[in-house]
Each structure stands twice: as structure tokens, then as C-alpha cells.
Amino acid sequence: MEIVSKFFAFLENNLFLKNGTCPICGKVLFITDHYLCSGCEEELPWINGPTCEGCGRLVFVTNRPRCKACAIGNFPFTGGYAWLHYHHSGKALVHAIKFKNRPNLGIWAGTQMGRELAKIPWVKEIDFIMPVPLHQSRLEDRGYNQSEKIARGIVKGLAESFTESHNKLPLLKLQTLRRSRNTPHQVGQGREERLTNLLGAFSAEYLEEFQGKTILVVDDVLTTGATLAEVATTLLEAGAKEVYIATVCAVAE
Ligand SMILES: [Zn+2]
Ligand SMILES: [Zn+2]
Fold first, then answer.
1. Measuring CA to CA, which of 40, 101, 173, 251 is 20 to 30 A from 238?
2. Number of Cβ atoms within 10 Å of the Cβ of 136
3. Which pLDDT value is given to residue 217?
């Protein structure tokens, strides 16, 4: 009995991650797995073109470079990248990062994204990487901002990929925009009214820092794009040169 329990203790300590289960299929994770089981990791729904050059989501018409939202000017992004489709295991992954207390899974996903982003030419222009801020009450409930974890992972992935090529590494900007209250819906407001609202909602402490800078805004998912567009508009109106976006998942147009 003693030997059996020792054997199981050995297995538990050496083969499996402590209390680790795959957030997608629920299987117990081996020590060789990262944050997903190898089966789920291999089957993640990666977005393989054609994608919108403005926001990174899948577009269905190959000869059209931008999705409708980007084409009609609803999205103020210069460019974008999305890693996974927002369905099946892509959706489960984002859900786990946001709601199942798996901040390290966010860092892991961001690191994978950073390695892919390193291959994209516009990434070399990025000065700052900024996660979409989380409303204070949500931050208190969740204990972390998932977008911040993803952004940290992106910096890590870029750092790994940039070592050889001597590209400048973007700086992670965390505290400049703080979401201090829920923003009212932006539709139907004039520019002045909207700006006042945005600057009030995101109490920007060091707006001068953004003058002439190129910023990559990070979020977990691109659905309507309203929040990302709101942050990008604020940064552009504060004097940023260009705003790009990166999301773990994006819905197709
Ligand atoms: Zn799995
Ligand atoms: Zn687009």
C-alpha cells in the first residue's frame, strides 16, 4: 500500500502538472504539456488568410483587402493581427483566460502571438504595446486584466524572436489609460462630445507620451470592435501617429 501510494505520488509530482487540466477538453495535463493538452494545442483554429489588413479578421472575398467595418472607416486601425477564430476551442481558450482564473494561459497565448507578430513588417514600427484597460470593478472581481497578460506574452514572444535581428522591442504601457467608468455608447455623438467622454472614461495621465508614437493595442477578442475602436480613437486624438491592434481571437466579418 505504501509503495502504491508512493508510486502515485511520484506520478503526480513528475508526470502531471499540479491541479492542471486542459481548459478546452478537461484532460489532466502532463508535465510536457504547456497550458493546453498537446491534442488541443495542435488543433487550435488558427486564422490562415485571407485577412483584413486593417484589423486582422478573416475576410471572405480574397481580392478585398479590408473588411466592411475597416473599409467604411468604422475602425481607425492602421493594421491588425488576430491569432485564432472565435469559435470552438478558440472561444474556449479566451473563456478560460477571462473567467477561469488562468492568467498564465493568457501569457502563453500572447507569447505564441508575439512569435507570429515578429514576422509581420509593421511590427517593427511599434513603440508601445498597450492592453485594453479593464473596468476597476471587473479588475477587482477577476484579480487580473486578461489583456495585460496577453500583452506581456506578446512582448515575451517578440523578445525571443527579435534577439537575432536587433529590432527595437516595443515598451509595455500599462498605466497610462485607466478605465474609470463604463463608457456610454458612442453612436450619435459629435466629435467634441465623444472626445470629452473618452478622455473622461480613460483618465489619461501621460498623454504627451503618445505624441507621434505608434501603438499596438491588445485585447482578448475582436467582435464588434467597439472597445478597441474607442481606445484607438482616444490615442489618435491624443496625438498618437498610428494605432494597430492584436487580438487572441477574431470573428470573421
Ligand atoms: Zn485538451
Ligand atoms: Zn477589418
1. 251
2. 12
3. 96
User: Is residue 56 very low, low, confident or very high in pLDDT (cuts 50, 70, 90)?
Assistant: very high
Q: Are residues 246 and 188 in the same domain?
A: yes
Cα(44) to centroid(ligand 2), Å: 22
Tally of structural domains, the chain: 2
Q: Which domain covers residue 142, as residue numbers? A: 46-250
Ligand nearest to the CA of 92: 1
Residues with CB under 5 A from ligand 1 (ion): 22, 24-25, 27, 37, 40
Query: Who's near 107: CB < 8 A, 6+ residues apart?
Result: 149, 150, 152, 153, 156
% the chain with pLDDT above 70: 80
Q: Are 238 and 210 in contact (CB under 8 A)?
A: yes
Q: How far is the CA of 108 from the centre of ligand 1 (A)?
A: 15
pLDDT tens digits for 6-49? 776 666 555 555 558 899 999 988 877 788 999 999 999 999 87
For 56: left if phi > 0, alpha if psi spans -120 to 50, otherwise beta; the answer is left
Query: 3-state secondary structure string, 73-90?
Result: CCCCCCEEEEEEECCHHH
Question: What pLDDT band is residue 214 in, cutting at 50, 70 and 90?
Answer: very high
The answer to whether residues 157 and 128 belong to one domain is yes
Q: Could you tell me if 31 and 150 lie in one domain?
A: no
Contact indicator for 99, 50 with CB cutoff of 8 Å = no
